[in-house]
Design goal:
mainly beta; Neuraminidase; six-stranded antiparallel sheet; 1% helix; 47% strand
Length: 399
């Protein structure tokens, strides 16, 4: 495969000690082009499998239209993400016929290594199609999970059961970063809602996992913003033992965050702003955490000069350090992770769009962000990209 590399330079402005940027540089590589397999890929998300020779395992799937996804695939790298194996289908993670032309499939898969059991836990959610068009987008949806054993075998996917009267319409952990606690249990953020209500709430679930089965132990407090579809696609990280952060997609031109001491009882949501209180303009697109032992970063998309015509301002992809005392982003640390290509054209879709991405701690000196930029105006052609973040000082949290 052909690969291109480019490096984003350091910020020129000096930074004070309180707001020091720990990013030395960002190097971006194109891993897969449309021509490599004759298809566009979406939602590439990776995790590290530790060992004498650590591996990266990544999941992704083909896309041909808006939310039109096919079989979930997996691939591996043994050299830190520089070269990859050929994508292979995950058993049981394709579409199945349900009668009357209705198909059920899976999407938004996020794999994470589970240290206590030595497995990879890949969480996704179900989705429905009729005549290859997304249907019933907010009804009868739930998380599914597939387990990869230490021997490399994928077990059949299972439904995460949650019998909650507030989640009769749907509940989903799609695209979400989650936290594995020291005892092997999980804090899993979810979007959920009852039948008939147009907006959705967000909470977190405390779940057990024994290497094969997940079980919901308890739910957290409800977070709600009744604007359009409400709150969506939350991601959680743990900054310190008693400090959890959640970032949330919303539909009022803002993104939101909240904090918790235990990962279940959450403070009120607050919009993302710069340190001076100026809010960021965000348009219903997910954000994710980039965690370093000495700092917390957020990666996101937002409105900026030059991308006003791009649908939902979904390019470029940015990252900035969080001022953890103020609960705000430090403007001087913001930098582009994946540069903008295209201005959207007349209808906003003629650009290479980011937004369904993932972040991974690779080692003490590097973290990576994986994304698949697609261009809807050009038949959803796309490229799988990897941005390698080089840190100025070691990340003590890395595997």
């Amino acid at each position: 495969m052909n690969r291109r590399h480019f490096t984003l330079g350091l910020l020129a402005a000096p930074l004070g000690a309180a707001s020091a940027d720990l990013v030395e540089r960002i190097e971006t590589t194109t891993l897969i082009r449309y021509a490599d397999y004759g298809k566009g890929w979406f939602s590439p998300r990776a995790c590290v499998i530790p060992g004498a020779r650590p591996k990266l395992l990544m999941t992704m799937q083909q896309i041909t239209g808006s939310d039109v996804f096919y079989h979930v695939h997996w691939l591996e790298s043994e050299d830190g993400g520089r070269t990859w194996s050929k994508p292979q289908p995950m058993p049981g993670m394709g579409r199945r016929q349900m009668g009357d032309g209705l198909e059920e499939g899976y999407c938004d898969t996020v794999p994470e290594y589970h240290p206590r059991t030595g497995t990879v836990l890949a969480m996704a959610h179900n989705v429905y199609y009729k005549d290859n068009v997304l249907t019933m987008p907010w009804e009868r949806r739930w998380p599914v999970y597939a387990v990869r054993t230490p021997q490399g075998e994928w077990l059949p996917p299972k439904k995460l059961e949650w019998d909650d009267p507030d989640a009769t319409g749907m509940y989903s952990a799609n695209c979400s970063q989650r936290v594995t606690l020291d005892d092997g249990t999980l804090i899993v953020p979810v979007t959920y809602g009852p039948l008939g209500r147009p907006d959705h709430s967000v909470t977190s679930l405390h779940c057990s996992f024994d290497g094969e089965h997940m079980k919901v132990l308890e739910r957290g407090s409800e977070l709600r913003l009744p604007v359009k579809r409400g709150l969506l696609e939350p991601s959680v990280t743990r900054r310190t033992k008693n400090r959890f952060w959640m970032t949330i997609r919303a539909e009022d031109n803002r993104g939101y965050f909240t904090t918790s001491k235990d990962g279940l009882h959450w403070d009120r949501i607050r919009p993302w702003t710069w340190q001076d209180g100026t809010p960021l303009d965000m348009s219903t697109t997910q954000q994710h955490w980039v965690l370093h032992s000495d700092a917390l970063y957020l990666s996101y998309t937002r409105k900026a000069p030059g991308n006003e015509r791009v649908v939902r301002w979904r390019t470029p992809l940015w990252m900035a350090r969080v001022d953890e005392e103020k609960g705000a982003l430090i403007r001087e640390t913001e930098r582009v992770v994946l540069p903008q290509r295209g201005d959207g054209g007349e209808k906003g879709y003629d650009a290479w769009l980011s937004g369904n991405f993932n972040t991974t701690m690779l080692n003490a000196r590097e973290s990576i962000i994986t994304d698949a930029q697609t261009n809807p105006a050009r038949g959803y052609t796309g490229e799988v990209l990897l941005a390698r973040i080089h840190w100025k000082q070691p990340n003590r949290l890395a595997p």
